[in-house]
Every structure is written in structure tokens, then in C-alpha cells.
Amino acid sequence: MSFPSHDLESAPEGSKPLIENSMKAFGRLPGLHKVLAESPQAYEGYQLLHKLFQASDFDAEELTVVWQAINVENECHYCVPAHTGIAKMMKVSDEISDALRNETPLPTAKLEALRTFTVQMLRQRGNMEDAQMDAFFAAGYGHRAVLDIILGMAQKTMSNYVNHMAVTPVDEAFQPLLWTRGDTPLEV
């Protein structure tokens, strides 16, 4: 069963201003947004979570680590290439993007601790052990970072699940960045 894919003409009335915002921000309408437009509330919720997560204390590299750790763990065929392209626009190094996509070591211990903690939290559904929390704090992160990761997870849960359900086609701009997970997931 395919999901509706909207544009400005076909979208429900409540989604039209959101589509206009997306088109201003991206210069085009991303495929995920075309699908989300079916529900103005889901679309607005996704946009708000995205905006709030970007306003967290994380820098561009850390935002990318959280987004891509979740995208890769959830095997999102759409979000991994999209966030690879977004990382390029945010001036995040290819070394970081490649390590995230390929589940190989990141260039710094702090970024690796962020990825490890994010994946652990995702896999354990937030039921973290004291030793995991201590390791994350020892890497230089605090309680706010834990909460901000949860915010990022809320955003990525929406996009990853929507893309799985809708089998959202990867946007043309991100076609050169297509991705599939390797044979063995990251050990954390």
C-alpha cells in the first residue's frame, strides 16, 4: 500500500503553509515532507522537533552524529543519504560522515562516546546502566546532552518510521549518496 505524496496543490489545507516553509528552506520539497503533508499535525510536529534539536547545545558534528547514529541503527534508506547531504551543507567532514555510514571509528573519542551512548540508549529504550551514564559524562557531556539526544530520537523516530512505512523515494539530490547497512552492525 503506497502512501500519498503531496505537493502544494494536493496537500490538506493545514499542510500548505508547512510546505511553503519547506520549499523556502530547501529550495524544493523533500520526499519525507511530501509524505508528512498528509497529516498537518505530524508534519508540524516533525518540523518543530527538527528546529528544537538544531537549537540544542550540540554543534554541527554532534548533531550529525546523533542523527546518523539513529538513522543507521534504524536502517533508514532515506535519512542516511539525506543526512549525509545535510552534513556536507553543514561543513561536517566526509571522515565523520563516512565513519557514521560505515559504522567505523569516529575521529575523536568524544564523538565516539556520543555515538555509542546514542545507540545504547536507542537499543535499550532509555534503560541506561550507571556505567554507561558515567562513561558518557566522563567524555564531557552532561544531563542536558542526554535530554537533547532524546529530543533528536523523537525527531528521527518520526522520520525513520515514516520512511519505512511509506518507502519514501530518496530525493534526486541525494541519489549519489544512497546507502545500505553493511553485514555487521556496530558493537556498543
Shape: globular
Can you count the helices? 9
Q: Might you state the CATH topology name of the largest domain?
A: AhpD-like
- CATH top level label of the largest domain: Mainly Alpha
Percent strand equals under 5%
- Largest beta-sheet characterization: none
* Total beta-strand segments: 0
The Cα radius of gyration reads 17 Å
Q: Which percent range fits the helix content?
A: 55-70%
Q: Which blocks of ≥5 consecutive residues have pLDDT under 50?
A: none
Q: Please provide the ordered H/E string of secondary-structure elements.
A: HHHHHHHHH
Q: What name goes with the CATH superfamily of the largest domain?
A: AhpD-like
| Beginning-to-end CA distance, first to last residue | 36 Å
What class would the helix/strand composition place it in?
mainly alpha
- Compute the number of structural domains: 2
Mean pLDDT: 96
Secondary structure: elements and pairs:
Layout: H1 16-26, H2 31-36, H3 40-54, H4 60-73, H5 79-89, H6 94-102, H7 109-123, H8 130-138, H9 143-166
Structural notes for this entry:
- The protein is mainly α and 188 residues long.
- The protein has two domains: 12-55, no CATH class; 58-166, Up-down Bundle (AhpD-like), CATH 1.20.1290.
- Helix content is 61%, strand content 0%.
- It contains nine helices and no strands.
- It has helices spanning 16-26, 31-36, 40-54, 60-73, 79-89, 94-102, 109-123, 130-138, 143-166.
- The longest helix is centred in the last third of the chain and has 24 residues, at 143-166.
- The model has no long low-confidence stretch (mean pLDDT 96).
